[in-house]
Amino acid sequence: MILFVNACVRKESRTLRLARRLLDTLEGEIKEVRLEEVRFPVVTEEFITRREALKNAKKYDDPMFDLGRDFAVADLIVIAAPYYDLSFPAMLKQYFEQINVLGLTFNYSETGVPSGLCRAKTLYYVTTSGGPIVSDEPGFGYVKALANSFYGIMDVRQIKVEGLDIIGADVEAILEAGAEIIDKEVPPHLLEMESILQRATDTLNTLEKSASELKSMQEDIRRLADYYDSEKWRRDFEADEQGLYPKNLRRGVLSEDGIYNLLERNKETLEVLK
C-alpha cells in the first residue's frame, strides 16, 4: 500500500499537482490521508494520560492510533506539503505527533536510541514554493530526521519546485521541469536492492577479514589456553582474590569463566568457518 499524506488545501495546489504526477509513476494501491479533513485532538493532560494508558496496554487497535497504524504498514510513503514559513503547514506537524507512537512506529533500545518499526523503505517529500526555499532543513530536513531516526526509513527523497511566484516566472515551464525530475526518478525497489547488495558485500568483507585475523591469532589463543590450565593462573587467581593486584587492573583473564568462554566461542567459530 502506498500512503499518500496530503497537506495541501488549495484546489489548484501546485504541490498536489506535482505529487499526483509522482503517484502516477508508482505501482500499488494508494491510500490518501487528507490532513485538512482530519480532526486532530487538542493535546491536553487528559488526552496524554489516555494515550499513555492505551499505549502501555498495547491497545494499538484504538481509533486514536489509526493514522499511526497506516503509516507503520505502508510499503511506500508520499508526503505533499507546500512550503510555508520556512517549513510546512502546521497540520503536518500535528500528523507526526499523532503517528509517533512507541511500540507502533518506533521503539527505544536499552540505551535509549530509537529504532524504526515501519515497513516502508522509501519516503518521498514533495513541496513547492512561490519564492526561493531558503533552507531545506526546517521542512524536508525535519521529515528526513524523523524518518531516519524514528521510523527506520533511510531512503528519503525530496522533490521540490521553487520560484513559482517570482515576477516573470514561467510557472508551467518550472512545473514541467519538476515533473521531468519525477519521470527520471530511480524506482525505489532498484535502490533497495542496491542497498542490500552493498550492505551484504560490506558484511562479507568484514567477516572475511575477521576470519583471517582469527585464524592468525590461533597460536596466541593456544598460549592463553595453556596459561588457563597452568599453576601460574591458579596462583594469579588466588593473589587477585587476596587483593594483591591493583583495583583498576583489567582482570578478564582472572575471572573464572572469561578464558573458558572465549575458548569455547573460538572453537565453535572455527567449526562454522570450516
For this entry, give a set of tags.
2 domains, two-stranded antiparallel sheet, Rossmann fold, 10 helices, 5-stranded parallel β-sheet, single chain, 7 strands, alpha/beta, 274 residues
Explained architecture:
With 274 residues, this protein is α/β, with parallel strands linked by helices. The chain folds into two domains: 184 residues, Rossmann fold; 57 residues. 50% of the residues lie in helices and 13% in strands. It is built from ten helices and seven strands. A five-stranded parallel sheet has the order 2-1-3-6-7, sandwiched between helices. Helix 1 packs parallel to helix 6. It is elongated, with a radius of gyration of 28 Å. The two termini are 44 Å apart. The mean pLDDT is 88.
What number of domains?
Answer: 2
Residue share in helix = 40-55%
| Overall 3D form | elongated
* CA gyration radius, whole angstroms: 28 Å
SSE sequence, one letter per element: EHEHHEHEEEHEHHHHH
* Percent of residues in beta strands: 5-15%
Let me know the average pLDDT.
Answer: 88
Broad CATH class of the largest domain: Alpha Beta
- Structural class of the secondary structure composition? alpha/beta
Q: Unreliable segments (pLDDT under 50, ≥5 consecutive)? A: none
In what order do the strands lie side by side in the largest sheet? Answer: 2-1-3-6-7
How many strand units?
A: 7
Q: Major sheet, described briefly?
A: 5 strands, parallel
**What's the tally of helices?**
10
The CATH homologous superfamily of the largest domain is termed Flavodoxin domain
CATH architecture of the largest domain: 3-Layer(aba) Sandwich
CATH topology of the largest domain: Rossmann fold
| Distance between the amino and carboxyl termini | 44 Å
